[in-house]
Amino acid sequence: MIPHGAASSAPAIASGGTETITGSDVNPGEVNGVFTALVRLDQALRTNDDVGIQRAMAMLDGSSTQINLAPGRGWSTAAGLDTLNGGLATEVTTLKESLSTEIDTDLPTALSDLAGRQAAFQAALQTAATVSKLSLLDFL
Q1: Is the CB of residue 41 less than 8 Å from the CB of residue 62?
Q2: Could you count the other beta carbons within 10 Å of the beta carbon of residue 62?
């Protein structure tokens, strides 16, 4: 960081030790969870703080509710994923069938169509060659 009023910062110093950054949290917030409740309970028990103990116990009660509901949320999520997986498998099958209908062809029919088109093309070429040889004198 550049100090106020200075044009540059102090040079970096590389060392093998550990450095500690100190400061304060500008946006302190407490996460509601089991570990936070246990830390608060530990602090309240060490300082014999009755209000803190009650608050930590209330946090633990709320956390135990979250813990009890967690398997249900996990099962419902797993059931939703199974449903999605089944839908995707059906969709893959449907897409493969559609591609097969569009891309796969009946070989004898395709060869017959090709032969017919080749014959029509050769006839058109012969007619064009014959017509290009004609001149105005041929019509008089």
Answers
A1: no
A2: 14
Residue-wise pLDDT tens for the chain (140 aa)? 556 666 666 665 555 566 666 666 666 677 777 788 888 889 999 998 889 888 888 888 877 777 777 777 777 787 888 888 888 888 988 888 888 877 777 778 888 989 999 999 999 888 887 777 766 666 66
- Angstrom CA distances, 83 to 79, 95, 114, 130, stand at 6, 18, 47, 68
Q: Residue 39 burial by CB count (10 A; 0-12/13-18/19+): exposed, middle or buried?
A: middle
Number of domains observed in the structure of the chain: 1
8 inside domain: no
CA distances from 64 to 14, 29, 52 (A): 47, 21, 18
What gap in Å lies between CA 72 and CA 82, rounded to an integer?
A: 15
- pTM for this one? 0.34
Residue 22 lies inside a defined structural domain of this protein: no
